[in-house]
Amino acid sequence: MKLGKILVTSAWPYIQHVLHLGNLLPILSADVMARYYRLKGHEVLFVSGSDVHGTPVEVEAVKQGVSPKELTDKNHELVVELFKKWAISFDNYTTTESPVHKEFVMDFHRKVAENGYVFTQESELPYCPNCKRFLPDRFVEGECPYCGYKGARGDQCEQCGRLLDPTKLIDARCSICGASPLFRRTVHWYFDLPRFSDQLREYITNNKQFPDNARNFSLRFIKEGLKPRPMTRDSDWGIPAPFEGAEGKTLYVWFENVLGYVSATIEYFKTHGDPDRWKEYWFDKDSKVLCFIGKDNIPFHTIIFPALLLATHEGYNLPWNVSTNEWLNFEGQKSSKSRKIGIWIDEALEMFPADYWRYTLMANRPETSDTNFTWKIFLEKINSDLNDTLGNFIHRTLTFINNYYDGKIPKPEKLDDIDRKMLDAISEYFKEIDENLSYFHIQAATRKVIELAREGNRYLNEKKPWKTIV
Amino acid sequence: MLEPFIPFTAKRIRKYLNLPAKLPWEDAVEPLKEGHKIKAAKPIFEKINLSEEKLQEMLEEVRSSMQKVSFKEFSKIDLRVGKIINVERVPGSKNLLKLTIDIGAANPKTAVAGIAKYYKPEELLNRQIAVVVNLEPRKIFGIESEVMILAAQHGDNVVFIQPEKPIAPGSKIR
Ligand SMILES: [Zn+2]
Ligand SMILES: [Zn+2]
After folding, report:
1. Chain A residues lying within 8 Å of B63, measured CB to CB
2. What gap in Å lies between CA A451 and CA A441, rounded to an integer?
3. Of residues A257, A236, A230, A200, the one with CA closest to residue A118
4. What is the pLDDT, as a whole number, of residue A470?
5. Is B36 on the interface with A (CB under 8 A)?
6. Is the pLDDT at A399 greater than 90, yes or no?
7. HSE toward the beta carbon, residue A198, CA cutoff 13 A
């Protein structure tokens, strides 16, 4: 039987900072599944990359007094090294600055525009006369009109949590230089998303793989009515918007990073001397595209990305599954760099080997609701599950064979009931683990592996093979 | 079967079992052949004998050791060679010594240091030491400490840092 090809992708992380363990979840989940499919004999390609564009990167670069390119070049190199240490088995981990990505994205959007899904609209946006640039909402600071908090940002007030827009701020100022911004009319290009409402509803309803969190969120989103989405921003850092009259504008990150799944496939085959084979993954109907994401990215993967692929009229494969994890909290709190809450993926490896973390994270993968990382759980997972159960079972079995059988697998004796029960358990667990993984229930699969080792220990204790030999 | 989850461990176990690197998924339940030779095995994992609090401390230690300080930040610290010209015990404290240190400036400076357990006052007199001279002054036991002396610590062992050869007090350390 010929098995279909599988493209495994994980959401492109922003790399203004190194990732924390929560950020790593989609990448680690994707790695587990990529390894599983490879073992099953599928042709697998596992791609992702650093999202180096976007406002968070610009904000951090301004803060550090370096250019966005300097910041992201440095951090990209750092995360590539870290992913190796975590054994993330990427076939291609690239960046949104890659020439292949940029060229593909610009061609892609030219096509979308030719097909009539792009229109322009004028609006008033904050502009700093001193910095000579339009300011993204979060680059404007001022007093919150609701609670009076002085350091509220143009997108949201951190104090009272209300969503704002820069025109609402009292005494608004540019967060880069402190000057008061002007409001200038500017034209932006919009993607005509509402025209895909029916097709998207049908796609999501018929998709049997989507986890409930992704399906329910997306259907609600469509039901509330899709709106045209701005595709362009007034910023130099990004991919030039390839539309007539859009000089000086760049594409909004979500209109380019999701296309990276395609461009990273193209880039992989280009560098492997087979420039046309990417199409097998994106157009062959028995190929599958899998996305692994965190729950904040749902609409971009179940709505915008499929709509963009549909807008080409070229018959791209839409994501076969969008496996979405919930949040991993740290001792009950949200991870936060500024508040030093959480664990970052570089620190973790300075403390314990990668497998200790990989196991703990996957055995607690937040699948249907948020989960909590605590040191208590970590100790329990490592000491009881890995060391006492799995490690102990393997070590005592191997040592036994080495000590009593000169390291050679002995001839099986006549099987009794205990033996037969154990053999049944092995095939039963194997079937269940296989099934769990094929439904993306990674947490359950991880836990079952340990349960099987527990059965193994019970078996050894019951049989006491060392007794019959001595 | 462990390979997707804990690949480093899976690799080690394959080595102990004397198996090739690439095995199909279904082989996970295939029994090994009679007479197949395996290798000596070491324990697979290591138990963590630390409390939750200790783990949190360990994380914070790792975090601070990984914090990079820019050269600009580092060069803000003014390190000098100082000479201890007077030592007194601090009344009411077993731990603290009040040091008067010549740092080459017009007036000597005062440092309050927690080293009474490790050095007798007479051992310190006239010794040269490394001093941070531009810290914000702090009141310790009612005495204003204007500078800080540098010492190395390993468990219960504490030693102060002194220049390899005598040099003029106030010499900059860089
Ligand atoms: Zn507010
Ligand atoms: Zn400005």
Report:
1. 340, 344, 347
2. 16
3. A230
4. 46
5. yes
6. yes
7. 1
What is the distance, to the nearest Å, from the Cα of residue A470 to the centroid of all Cα atoms in its chain?
A: 54
Asked whether the beta carbons of residue A402 and residue B8 sit closer than 8 angstroms, the reply is no
- Residues A187-212: tens digit of each pLDDT: 999 999 999 999 999 999 999 999 99
Q: Flag whether residue B69 sits within 8 Å of chain A, measured between CB atoms.
A: no
Q: Does A36 touch chain B (CB under 8 A)?
A: yes
A283 and A273 fall within a common domain:
yes
Which residues of chain A are within 8 Å of residue B1 when distances are taken between CB atoms? 430, 433, 449
Cα of A86 vs centre of ligand 2, distance in Å, is 41
Residues B87-121 have pLDDT tens digits of 999 888 888 999 999 998 888 999 999 888 899 99
More confident residue, B76 or A21: A21
Are the beta carbons of A246 and A189 closer than 8 angstroms?
yes
Q: In the prediction, which pLDDT does A272 show?
A: 96
Mean pLDDT, range B45-60, rounded to an integer: 94
Other Cβ atoms less than 10 A from the Cβ of A409: the count is: 16
C-alpha of residue A125 to centroid of ligand 2, in Å: 14
CA distance B130 to chain A (A): 31
For residue A155, the one-letter residue type is D
C-beta atoms of A382 and B45 within 8 A = yes
Percent over 70 (pLDDT), chain B: 99
CA distance A398 to chain B (A): 6
pLDDT tens for A368-393 read: 999 999 999 999 999 999 999 999 99
Interchain contact A350–B (C-beta under 8 A): yes
Domain end residue (candidates: A318, A341, A372): A372
Cα-to-centroid distance, A134 and ligand 2 (Å): 9
Is A298 an 8 Å CB contact of chain B?
no
| For the CA of A174, the nearest ligand | 2
Better-predicted residue by pLDDT, B137 or A33: A33
What separation in Å is there between the alpha carbon of A153 and the centre of ligand 2? Answer: 14
Spell out which residues of chain A touch residue B50, defining contact as CB-CB under 8 Å. 379
- Give the amino acid at A313: H
Read off the pLDDT of residues A276-295 as tens digits, 9 standing for 90 and up.
Answer: 999 999 999 999 999 999 98
- CATH number of the domain enclosing A397: 1.10.730.10
Is A233's pLDDT higher than 80?
yes
For residue B105, the model assigns a pLDDT of 85
**Which DSSP category does A300 fall into?**
I
| Ligand 2 center from residue B159 Cα (angstroms) | 52
Sheet holding A229-230, edge to edge: A133-134, A118-128, A182-191, A229-230
Asked if A468 has any chain B CB less than 8 Å from its own CB, the reply is no
At residue A136 the predicted structure's pLDDT band, cuts being 50, 70 and 90, is confident
Residues B158 and B151: beta-carbon distance below 8 Å: yes
- CATH code for position A109: 3.40.50.620
Out of A327, A343, A372, pick the residue that ends a domain.
A372
Q: Residue A110 sits in which domain range?
A: 6-116+252-372
For residue A467, what pLDDT is reported?
66
Query: Which CATH number fits the domain that encloses residue B102?
Result: 2.40.50.140
Tell me, yes or no, whether A51 and A97 share the same domain.
yes
Residue A56 scores a pLDDT above 90: no
Annotate A9-55 with DSSP letters as a single string: EEPPPB-SS--BHHHHHHHHHHHHHHHHHHHTT--EEEEEEEB--SH
Type of residue found at A261: Y
The Cα of B1 is separated from the nearest Cα of chain A by a number of Å equal to 8
